[in-house]
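For the sake of transparency, this paper describes our internal protein records without simplification. Because each token names a local backbone shape, the row as a whole describes the fold. One such record is reproduced below, unchanged from the form in which we store it.
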Amino acid sequence: MSNEVAQPRDKPHTRRGFRPSDVPTSIASLLLLFAFMAVWEGYVRFFDVSTFLLPPPSLVIFEWIRSLGTASLWFHTWITTYETILGFVIAAVIGVGLGAVLGKLPKLEQTLNPFIIATQVVPKVALVPLFVVWFGFGLAPKVIIAAVLAFFPILLNTILGVKSVDRGHREVLISINASRWQSITQLEFPSSLPYILTGMEIGIVLAIIGAVVGEYLGGNQGLGNLAVKEMNSYNTTALFAVIIHLSLLGFIFYAVLVGTRRFVIPWHESVQIDRK
């Protein structure tokens, strides 16, 4: 009788089938965009829709590429970019500063909260003509409306970040007699930074919206004003091209802040999840 012990056979290796989740998100986004463009193109061509109402994406992209070679588009792009960045910086400085103070002083926050909310429930479009009367048709009213729109989310997220500092970590710093400056730089600011950056990501999108709305209603420069000119000349294809250009500009602003988040707080869970 053999003393050999039967060895279990290795299970044959089975190849896992393809799953939609295997596609990288960037590739999936591009495929979705191409599918949308194909449906748009097919709809316009099949139903013979007038280009005045809805131009096909092929014509829109061709018009956008053509406009990239003109000095006019880049001039208006610079104006809108300048208004957006300046308005955003003003909103960020005031929003983070005031939010840090209100987050540390709950009674002051409760006192000012009704007034802060009251400034946000007023339709911002209604303020543009008033700003034009006060500051004229230059850059000032567009910068102000961009700052006003971006201010609120930055303020709220800063307040939330200051309030969300872990109590246990704070008690540890107190137990080792850490100075006030050490508490701010080593605990409160790093803990609040993810919330502040989230508010800024929302704020930059609202800032460009505010700048463009200001250009729509009270300006003679910028991409918003260029879109109005194309609309008044009934050039729908060029109008769509300006909209695409504005969308790309807003996406670049947002991508820069997302990249800043990954660079400034690589340790945070939100960044770690995105990298997986």
